[in-house]
Amino acid sequence: MSAHPAILAPVDFSDASRAALRYARVIAEHFGARLVILAVEDPLLTEAVDLGTGQVWDPEDTRRELARFASGALGGNPLKTADVEYAVAVGRPAKEILQLAREKPCDLIVMSTHGLTGMRKMFFGSTTERVLRETTVPVLAVPATDAVPQSSEEIRRSIGHILVPVDLTPASMHQVQIARALSEALKVPFVATYVIEPVRSPLAARLHLPSIELERKTRAEDALSELLATVPRGLHPEALVAYGDPAEEIAKVARDRNTGLIVIGLHGSPALGPRMGSVTYRVLCLVPSLVLALPPQHVGDGAAVPPALHSFVHK
């Protein structure tokens, strides 16, 4: 990890990425992080420029366009306490984003859950999905919105509640540690929730399901209590066991509890390699909240909070 925290903000010149850039700006300024603003060009388009105009495509043209876009997105106000770098790459968006995050290196990626379709720029929905499947650093996924906080204090007020959906694997403790740190810093309560999926098996007809479901619920409640035992009581953490489709129940809890931030893990079947898991993907599609996605690579390392997040939550 870098000694000086760095945030990567990929943009595709869409309104959605403009909102994500504004969030990145607030976070970067809050703790003086280096902000890297990235645009990725399609190699076919750069080649078409060369063939169609007779002039070699110059990345400085895109860099100037990127600077103008950032100036407009940020209201013409320069970043006061953060170093800013404008980066331009050519290739597949997700691959270039991940590569730059490794090279800088960056501690947090802030990007939109949606973006611009068409030939000019990348389709950020699918790009975000691909980044989440392979990232080794946390990603703050920002929904398309016009209501973007202008300061860290406004972010605190807009959060309301933090929701931590856990699957009771070893990765769950890491999520709870992150939520605890954010809850302390933002002074908002958090809810840890586990969703019990209905039993779907031909054997169900031969079993006494009520007693089995009661046992599953009891075990889940005990596991959640153990997770929250390390959290100071003054934070008033809440444990909630729900029943049904995980993504839909998480979305329902998020709506009911006025959740502005979801802290969720990026892991699926180890046999299939890096992937975010179907539940995480569906939550991103269903919930119009900020989503802090934590890659499995951070599970089990010495620090409970990655460097950039540590700086943010302890300032």
Radius of gyration: 21 Å
Tell me about the biggest sheet?
Answer: 10 strands, mixed
β-strand amount: 15-25%
N-to-C SSE series? EHEHHEHEHEHEHEHEHEHEH
In which order are the strands of the major sheet placed? 3-2-1-4-5-10-9-6-7-8
Output the structural class. Answer: alpha/beta
- In round numbers, the mean pLDDT is 81
Number of helices: 11
Low-pLDDT stretches:
117-124, 270-275, 298-304
From the N-terminal CA to the C-terminal CA, the straight-line distance is 19 Å
Overall form: elongated
Number of strands: 10
* Overall helicity: 40-55%
Q: How does the SSE layout of this entry go?
A:
Layout: E1 6-10, H1 15-31, E2 34-41, H2 43-53, H3 59-73, E3 84-90, H4 93-103, E4 108-112, H5 124-134, E5 139-142, H6 152-159, E6 161-165, H7 171-186, E7 190-196, H8 209-228, E8 238-243, H9 246-256, E9 259-265, H10 278-286, E10 290-294, H11 307-314
Parallel strand pairs: 1-2, 1-4, 2-3, 4-5, 6-7, 6-9, 7-8, 9-10
Antiparallel strand pairs: 5-10
How would you describe the overall organization of this protein?
This protein is 43% helix and 19% strand. It is built from eleven helices and ten strands. The protein has a ten-stranded mixed sheet with strand order 3-2-1-4-5-10-9-6-7-8, with helices on both faces. Helix 5 links the parallel strand 4 and strand 5. It is elongated.
